[in-house]
Design brief:
The chain has nine helices and nine strands. With 236 residues, the protein is an alpha/beta fold. The modification N6-(pyridoxal phosphate)lysine is found at residue 40.
């Protein structure tokens, strides 16, 4: 465990320096960019070690894996970053502080209904923070809301008392120039904030392209491999 903590500490320091360097190059302050550790397939023990090292935000792609981890390592801010089916909404709102992958009105409505239920049961008081996942390649297999439909979905979310619109999330298209993709996302974010000024978060950039994302205004990078290494076995 000591060796693993040392490994994670070294990786974290390297990621932090990459983020800091990218912020300096972009003329931005380091505290403008949040780091979310993506811990999918890694055990809760790794999450606990990252917490000891100062990590406060953790992201997961699968509800069935995230719920037990969140229960085992309390006190962190948990983010759902993977594609989400509507029938998982009730489970997700039990552990997630934020859902970054809202890409349809039907999913937004399902999450709002689930939040209402847990609020009625006095399990949760606050609204659920959500980001709209924007599609930068119009590939339905990868999820995401088409850029032309962002405004309508944002309006729908903003009308809900159970959801709090925080901004946009996106993944650069496979094989594409991440600079061009993140520039498109930045323009979409500017348009969104004209009607929803509080939706200022931009979640973009992962282990391989966080520098480009920060250059184009990302306020949140989602880093897995660079922090934890190659994917291990799924946690129990």
């Amino acid at each position: 465990m000591t060796d693993r903590k040392a490994e994670l500490a070294e990786n974290l320091a390297e990621v932090e320096e990459r983020i800091a360097a990218a912020c300096r190059a972009a003329g931005r302050a380091r505290d403008e960019v949040k780091l979310i550790a993506i811990t999918k397939t890694f055990p809760a023990s790794d999450v606990a070690l990252l917490a000891e090292l100062g990590v406060t935000d953790v992201g997961e792609n699968r509800d069935q894996e995230a719920g037990p981890k969140a229960a085992e390592v309390p006190g962190l801010r948990w983010h759902m970053v993977g594609r989400l089916q509507r029938n998982k909404a009730k489970s997700v709102v039990g552990w997630a502080d934020e859902v970054q992958s809202v890409d349809s009105a039907r999913l937004a409505d399902a999450l709002a209904k689930a939040v209402r239920a847990v609020q009625t049961a006095q399990i949760r008081d606050e609204p659920l923070d959500v980001l709209i996942q924007a599609s930068l390649d119009d590939d339905p297999e990868r999820g995401g809301c088409p850029l032309s439909e962002l405004g309508a979905l944002a309006d729908r979310i903003a009308q809900s008392e159970e959801l709090r619109l925080r901004g946009l999330m996106a993944v650069a298209p496979l094989g594409a120039d991440p600079d061009a993709a993140f520039e498109r996302l930045a323009r979409a974010g500017e348009t969104l904030r004209k009607d929803h000024p509080n939706a200022a978060d931009v979640s973009a950039g992962m282990s391989h392209d966080l520098e480009q994302a920060i250059t184009h205004g990302s306020t949140c990078v989602r880093v897995g491999t660079a922090l934890l290494g190659g994917r291990g076995l799924a946690s129990p």
